[in-house]
Amino acid sequence: MQQTQTAIAIPGYRPGKKALLVFFETDCPTCQLALPYFNGLAGDSLQVIALSQDDEARTQQFVKQMRITYPVELDRGLTLSRSYDPQSVPTSFLLDENGAVMRLLVGFDKAGLNDLAAVVGHSPIAPQDDGAPAWKPGCSSRHLEPQGDGASPEDSSAPLLRRVGEPATRIELKGDVDPVEFCFWQFGDALPVVPPTTERVAAILKACALSPESVVARVPPCYGEATVEKIAANAVMAGCRPEMMRVLVPLVRAVCDERFNAHGVQATTHFAAPLVIINGPVRQELGFWSRQNVFSNVARANSTLGRALQLILLNMGGARPDGIDMSALGNPGKFASCIAENEEENPWEPFQVDRGLRREQSALSLFAAEPPRGVSEHSAQRGETVLRAICQALSTVWSYRMCMRNEAVVVLCPEHVKTVHRDGFSKQQVRQFLFENTGIPLRYYASQDGGEGTQLVAHYREIKIQGEPCYQKFSSANAIHIVVAGGTAGKFSAVLGSWSTGPAGSQMVTYPIPEK
Amino acid sequence: MSVTLVHPGNENVPQAAAPPARLESLAGKKIGLLDISKPGGSFFLDRLEKILRERHGVAEVIRARKPTFAKTAPPQVIEQLRGMDAVVEGLAD
Question: Residue ranges of the domains in chain B?
Answer without folding.
Answer: 30-90
